[in-house]
Protein: HTH lacI-type domain-containing protein
Organism: Vagococcus fessus
Amino acid sequence: MATIRDVAALSGYSVSTVSRVLNNHPYVSDEKRARVKKAMAELNYIPNNQARILSSGQSFSVGLVVPNTTNPCFAQIISGCLSAAGELGYRVTILQTDFVEEKEREYLQQLLSKEYDGLIVSSHAIPLGEIASAAKMAPIICCENPKDVDISAVYSYRDDAYNELFETLKKEEHHSIGLVLSRTENESPSMNAIVQAYISRYGDIKEDYVYREAMTYQDGSLAADYFKLSSNLPTVIICNDDEVAAGLASGFTEEISPLIIGQGDSLISKITNLSTINHHYDQVGYESFKKLFSEKREKIEFKSDVIWR
C-alpha cells in the first residue's frame, strides 16, 4: 500500500507539501496541488484519516444545524454546504432541531467539545446572542442578518424584494392580502421582514388574513381550507415557501383562486408555475461554508429577487 512518502517521491515534492495538499492548506499553488493529486491517483493512495485528524487536531467535520431537511429552502442550503465541503475535504453532519431549543444547545456543546470543527446555523429557536457567545470560542456562522449581534453571517437580503412585491401588488390594486407564515414574527427575522414590508405599504394586518405554523405541502392545503371559510377571500396570498404555496394552490379551483406567491424559487414553483422570490439559498449555504473558518467577522448578503410567473 502506498504511503505519503511514496506520493512525495513520485510528485517531486516534500512530505510536508503533500501533507498541506491533503489538509487543503490554502497556501499551495495550483500546480503543486495538481501534481500531488496526480501522484496520489497513480499510486491509488488512500489517506489515513485517523492519522490526519490526530496530526492536525481537527475532525474535518462541520455540523449544519437545520430545523428539518424536507423544507426546500433548507434542502438548498444543505446542497450549497455539501458542495463547498467537498471542495475543501470536509464532512458535513446534518443536525436536525425541529426548532427545539434543547437540541440547539446540545449541538453548541458538541461543538465546544470538539466534535466538530465548526457549526453553520441555518435557523434557530434560541436567542442569536446565545449562539454569538459560543462563536467567541469556536467557529460559527449563521444564515440570517445578525444586525447588531457580533457573529459572522451569510444571508439573503430580503427587504428590497419584499418592498418591490408589495409595491407592485398595490399598483395592481390588490388590497386584501393574506400571509401564510411558518413561525411568528417574534421568532423569525424573515417572517418579521415580510410583515414589516406589508405594514409599510398597507398598514396593520388583519389577523384573520394570517395563517401561521405552515411548513409543509399539507399545511398549505390546510391554509387553503382556512382562507376559504373567510367571507372576504384575499385576492393575493403570499406563502413562506414554495412547497406551502403549492399545497395552498391545490386547495383552490381555477374558478375561485387568489394569486398565490411562494418563496425559494424551488423546482415545485416552476412545475406549478407559481410566482416566487428567489432567496439564493444554495449560494448562502455554499458561501457560509467557505467563510466559516475566516479569522475575521464577516457579513455577506445575497439580494433576493421577485420572479413573476
The longest strand covers residues 61-66. The first helix runs from residue 4 to 11.
